[in-house]
Design a protein that fits this description.
Blueprint: E1 11-14, H1 22-25, E2 31-36, H2 40-43, H3 46-54, E3 58-62, H4 71-84, E4 88-93, H5 95-107, H6 117-120, E5 132-136, E6 148-153, E7 158-163, E8 171-174, H7 184-202, H8 210-232, H9 237-250, H10 264-276, H11 280-294, H12 296-311, H13 318-335, H14 351-361, H15 375-384
Parallel strand pairs: 1-8, 2-3, 2-4, 4-5, 5-8
Antiparallel strand pairs: 6-7
Bound molecules: 5,6-dihydroxy-NADP and zinc ion (ZN).
Zinc ion binds near residues 141, 193, 196, 266 and 280.
Pfam families: ADH_Fe_C, Fe-ADH
InterPro entries: ADH_Fe/GldA (IPR001670), ADH_Fe_C (IPR056798), ADH_Fe_CS (IPR018211), BDH-like (IPR044731)
Keywords: Oxidoreductase
Length: about 375
């Protein structure tokens, strides 16, 4: 196990009715920016609960944060915060609203000339941020308890991330009942995204990290069983509660502590969203099986462990077990309605050299836990995903 420092400062209020806790979290004199998406929180009653908890605090609202939050949608909110002297941001919605809020929190006190630089330098220039609270309505990204944010800029066809300890939410409310209104497509996306988050941190090479490995395997098994149950029975509270908590545990820093990490499926997947607007989780479902196939030799030991402990595959050679694990993974995505080939999204293999070049242009010529995914190999694996 590698050395690590683990610190996750986000306070989680989990369960039914917990939106009321916002009243205890925000100072009475807080000037709050309430950030929201396209309106789902009005339709499902979450907005009313939030407003009630906010009481008579001063609240400004900024609506319209889209899936894959756009820099140009967020900048007016940054200006609003500066003009009104906002002291807290409250994000209410899915990962896109939360990520957009993190960007706003970092951009308001930002000392540089151009806040896009926060994305260009991946957060290195972020020195402070407004405090952030969140009410998460879509279990998927882990954004409710991590320091990551992914921002798109359609005007220049980019999708980049930043990391900063300053944007960990101070608190997050996770009430599984707020997710009952999700359409099946978004429930599936959430399961598929969280599943891949675990694999990016687990499916590398052995690091003698038994706690992290076995915790990761538990989260994977819960996503497979409870996730599927929750997909099939959206208002089964216990199944949904387990899905919500699994998605948080998948990317709150715990299972990734002291172990090698990959993240190349995400790096390649973000390009497919930037170029073709494919849902984040669906890009992962396209890239992941092809990437695991391409990386089978270097991931073999963990693929065999994954096969046995998560999929119950206990016979065959190591090569056969690894192949079975990849097949099970693809079938799992397909079982929740997520197609796993480029062609399913009307994208041809012509995208493969383009993605490889865009990554190379950003200096990403050696990604993956061994730095062995070169532009040529990225192109080849994407062609295999056609
Ligand atoms: O805009 P509204 O009306 O709220 O509708 C949203 C949106 O259309 C809807 N929705 C959310 N909660 C709902 C609901 N509809 C009905 N009932 C509810 N309770 O769902 C749609 C998708 O929402 P979005 O927030 O875009 O989905 P998700 O949570 O999957 O977030 C995806 C974004 O997160 C980034 C992705 O790249 C993408 O931009 N990621 C962030 C990460 C992080 N911060 O750590 C890591 C991830 O790997 C990921 O990259
Ligand atoms: Zn993801």
């Amino acid at each position: 196990m590698d050395n690590f420092t683990f610190h996750n400062p986000t306070r989680i209020h989990f369960g039914k009715g917990q939106i009321a806790r916002i009243a205890d979290e925000l100072p009475a004199d807080a000037k709050v920016l309430l950030l929201a998406g396209g309106g789902s929180i009005k339709a499902n009653g979450v907005y009313d609960q939030v407003k009630s908890a906010l009481g008579d605090r001063t609240v400004f609202e900024h609506w319209g944060v889209e899936a894959n939050p756009d820099f140009d949608t967020l900048m007016p909110a940054v200006e609003l915060c500066k003009k009104e002297g906002v002291t807290w941001v409250l994000a209410v919605g899915g990962g896109s609203v939360l990520d957009g809020a993190k960007f706003i929190c970092a951009a308001v006190p930002y000392a540089g000339d151009d806040p896009w630089q926060i994305l260009v330098d991946a957060g290195a220039s972020v020195k402070s941020a407004l405090p952030l609270g969140t009410v998460l309505t879509l279990p998927a990204t882990g954004s409710e308890a991590n320091m990551a944010s992914v921002i798109s800029r359609r005007a220049i066809q980019e999708k980049l991330h930043f990391l900063s300890p300053h944007v960990f939410p101070v608190f997050s409310v996770l009430d599984p009942e707020t997710t009952y209104s999700l359409p099946p497509r978004q429930v599936a996306n959430g399961i598929g995204d969280a599943f891949c988050h675990v694999l990016e941190q687990y499916l590398t090479f052995p690091a003698q990290a038994a706690v992290q490995d076995q915790f990761a395997e538990s989260v994977l098994r819960v996503l497979i069983t409870e996730g599927k149950k929750s997909f099939d029975n959206p208002t089964d509270y216990d199944a949904r509660a387990n899905l919500v908590w699994a998605a948080t545990c998948a990317l709150n820093g715990f299972i990734g502590s002291g172990v090698p990490q990959d993240w190349s499926t995400h790096t390649i997947g973000h390009e497919l969203t930037a170029l073709h607007g494919i849902d984040h989780a669906r890009t992962l479902a396209i890239v992941l099986p092809a990437l695991l196939e391409a990386q089978k030799p270097t991931k073999l030991a963990k693929l065999v462990q994954f096969a046995e402990r998560v999929w119950g595959v206990t016979t065959g050679t190591d090569e056969e077990r690894a192949t079975a694990a990849i097949a099970h993974t693809r079938a799992f995505y397909e079982s929740i309605g997520i197609a796993t080939h480029l062609a399913d999204y009307d994208v041809t293999a012509e995208v493969a050299p383009l993605v490889a070049k865009r990554l190379a242009d950003r200096g990403l010529t050696a990604i993956g836990e061994h730095g062995d995914l070169t532009p040529e190999r990225i192109e080849a694996l994407l062609r295999a995903a056609a």
